[in-house]
Amino acid sequence: MDKPKSKKIGIIGGTDSSRGSGLFADEETIYELGDKPIAVISAITQQCNSSKIRIHAVPALGLESQLDGLLQEELDAIKIGMLPDESSVRKVGEFLNKSSCKKVILDPVQMTSNGHSLITDEGWECLIKDLIPRVNLVTPNIQEACKLLNINNSEKISPVSLANECSKLGARSILLKGGHAAGEQSTDLLVEGTSPVIEYKWERIPGGTEVRGTGCRLASAISCNWAKTNHLPISVKEAGKYLQNYIRR
């Protein structure tokens, strides 16, 4: 049997000097799944020392030239991660207007696991209003979903309601990740148009929440799987399996 042809996955995000998250995690995941990542750097971050995070946004012209190069590729999927400011969000939005790719995933990265902001307030507002309506899938965790909706994380709102409210922001689909929620299992929720909400229940792995870059890896794995099939629910399930195995490793 012939080996399946590898897919081209465009990845847009920040570098991580600790190599635990960001574009490094994206590239490693995509290579492991047999596909080809094509990277665009939006920011350079220094994260080796959690108390001294440094973020250097790529100038607009530098980002634009990289995105112009990405337009020359026949991409099977696009995964967007860290965008540091309003300028980068707008540049990526302009890129999506020109791109013919129909499988675009946004992982709305707002801060590091240590609580350091990765995007300006103006950039975050622009991401909500101008970028989310242009993408096919958004993959927030519960904290990010609350930030997208501008509600307090402690407010009494069910995960299903939270996912449904996020879907009103304009993206075609929402995957609400439940890894940091309480409970014996971790439950992710997929809202896809008017279809019933799909639950993905995963075993909680001791120390799993301490592993960095899991959100990056999950979104990248979904990109690879979705590039090979038009069935998003199966793509999410297979990506979840991949992430479970990665955390165990």
Structural features, described:
The protein is an alpha/beta fold. It has one domain (about 10-249): 3-Layer(aba) Sandwich (UDP-N-acetylmuramoyl-L-alanine:D-glutamate ligase). It contains 8 helices and 9 strands. Strands 3-2-1-4-5-6-7-8-9 form a 9-stranded mixed sheet, with helices on both faces. β8 (about 185-190) and β9 (about 200-205) form a beta hairpin. α5 (about 140-150) packs across α6. The longest helix is centred in the C-terminal third of the chain and has 17 residues, at about 230-249. It is globular. The mean pLDDT is about 90.
Task: Sum this structure up briefly.
The chain is α/β, with parallel strands linked by helices and 249 residues long. It has eight helices and nine strands.
Neighbour order of strands in the largest sheet:
3-2-1-4-5-6-7-8-9
Tell me how many strands there are. Answer: 9
**What does the main sheet amount to?**
9 strands, mixed
Bin the strand percentage. Answer: 15-25%
* Count of individual domains: 1
The CATH class designation is Alpha Beta
Low-pLDDT sequence parts: none
Calculate the mean pLDDT score and round it.
Answer: 91
Shape: globular
Q: Which CATH architecture would you pick?
A: 3-Layer(aba) Sandwich
**Percent range for helical residues?**
25-40%
Category by helix and strand content: alpha/beta
- Report the total helices: 8
